Amino acid sequence: MRTLILIVGTIALAACVRVVPEGQPTRTPNPPEIPAAGATTAGLAQASAGPAVESLAIGSPDAGTALASFAESCPKIIGREDRSGLTNGEDWRPACEAAANWPNSDARRFFTSYFETLRVGDGAAFATGYFEPEIRGSRVRAPGYDVPVYAMPSELVRAWPADMPQAERTGRPPLGRYDAKGDFVLFYERAEIEQGALANRGLEIAWAADPVEFFFLQIQGSGLLRLQDGSLMRIGYAGQNGREYVGIGRVMRERGLIGDGTPYATSMQGIMGYIRDNPAVGAEIMRLNKSWIFFRELDTDGPLGSLGVPVRREASVAVDPDFVPYGAPVFLDMEHDVADGLWIAQDTGGAIKGANRFDTFWGNGADAREIAGGMSSRGQAVVLVPRGTVQRLESRQ
Q1: Percent of the chain topping pLDDT 70
Q2: Position 148 pLDDT exceeds 90
Q3: Number of Cα atoms under 13 Å in the Cβ half of residue 110
Q4: How far apart are CA 267 and CA 375, in angstroms?
Q5: For residue 336, which phi and psi values (nearest 5 degrees)?
Q6: Alpha carbons 58 and 340: distance in angstroms, whole number
Q7: Quick one: which of 319, 324, 271 has its CA closest to 117?
Q8: For the chain, how far is it from start to end, CA to CA, in angstroms?
Q9: Does position 12 have pLDDT exceeding 60, yes or no?
Q10: Residue 244 · residue 188 · CB < 8 Å
Q11: What order of strands is seen across the sheet that includes strand 232-240?
């Protein structure tokens, strides 16, 4: 099988965790990084033609949900620049035009008709999971609801520090703010915000009841607030403070607080259990993650991914867009069979770096929380691209 050397975009993901203005962030408490075979810091990756789509174990229900999410993505991907370098926006037009009226009952034939596969590197994949948490909240501050949910502050901007040499000013400027002296400085970190750096300015769009639950809602990047009258308020990612994201699960494992020999599993549930049982240490550990997420209220029927369309349970996956085009179907064959099947790339995340690194979306509810919290699986992945892509890439050699 011929090997294609692909030049993928070197544009960095905007700030830590996920700063993608169109959508909301995904992340995992303890993400490993799986580089592409042959990848370098210059953004080179190897890819090769994969198996025929017909040979993939795509079931009818799986194909149906993937088709619906692909069609929903189409208005965003046609004409969009593909940072991966694999496709052009117009490449997707034939499939998108067909998807608009394709019968869901025959969805598998849609994918076999319009797509071929690419394997990036050796295809060795790692997948985690995310979900839309539901926590208790209030639109106004009330007894028991003391954790502010902030909108984006106007002073959070991108700029180059005055003392940064011109030669080092590459990519996007960092996020920060101008202080009272007019100097550009880093924005407030988590500890400073918790201690009131943004208080009493009218930035609160809601108040959460539980600081631990809200911390993990920030990691997920969106969620539902169950209000006092029983109604739901959906909040989505609006921005991030530009400060360092720290996966506290890794820190806790290295300190021997979770994992083997402890009562706490290396999962979201185990991390939360330790923090609740050890509140003082837990608060200090959470503040190691200096990243803070700002929110906006959403009126959509699902949380928005970074592509700008709602992510759907068991259909949407977060990817690194430097390696996987937004809107592309991705077929996963993982150790955790529940993650096997066809997914649509509609999201990204600061923890989702490199080729074959995926974060699967599981919706909301108790089962979604359980599946996503325990999802940590290795396997194989191929990316579905419009027919003709492989031949064009080969001709570039």
Answers
A1: 88
A2: yes
A3: 27
A4: 8
A5: -80, 105
A6: 9
A7: 324
A8: 15
A9: no
A10: no
A11: 147-150, 204-208, 134-138, 222-226, 232-240, 293-298
Helix ranges (H only) for the chain are 60-77, 93-99, 107-114, 190-194, 211-220, 248-254, 268-277, 279-288, 366-374, 389-395
Is 3-129+312-365+373-395 a CATH 3.40.50.720 domain?
no
pLDDT in tens, 293-337: 999 999 988 899 999 999 999 999 999 999 999 999 999 999 999
Query: How is the chain split into domains, by residue range?
Result: 3-129+312-365+373-395, 134-247+289-298
CB 25 within 8 A of CB 366: no
Contact, 289 vs 246, CB < 8 A? yes
Measured CA to CA, the distance from residue 18 to residue 36 in angstroms comes to 21
The separation between CA 391 and the C-alpha centre of its own chain, rounded to angstroms, equals 31
Q: Could you give the dihedral angle defined by the CA atoms of residues 384, 387, 388 and 393, in that order, rounded to the nearest 10 degrees? A: 0
The size of the chain, in residues, is 397
Are 234 and 182 spatial neighbours (Cβ–Cβ below 8 Å)?
Answer: no
Instruction: Give the class (CATH, top level) of 134-247+289-298.
Output: mainly beta
Helix axes 211-220, 268-277, angle to 10 degrees: 150
- 44: CB partners within 8 A, 6+ apart: 5, 6, 7, 8, 38
Would the CA dihedral through 234, 79, 331, 15 be positive or negative? negative
pLDDT band at 391 (very low <50, low <70, confident <90, very high): confident
Q: Tell me, what's the pLDDT at 333?
A: 97
Looking at residue 43, its pLDDT comes to: 31
Helices (H), 48-122: 60-77, 93-99, 107-114
CA-to-CA distance for 116 and 96, rounded, in angstroms?
A: 15
Give mean pLDDT, residues 62-71: 97
- At residue 85's C-alpha, the angle toward residues 387 and 384, to 5°, is 35
Pairing of strands 329-334, 341-347: antiparallel
Amino acid at residue number 111: F
Of 374 and 386, the structure prediction assigns the larger pLDDT to: 386
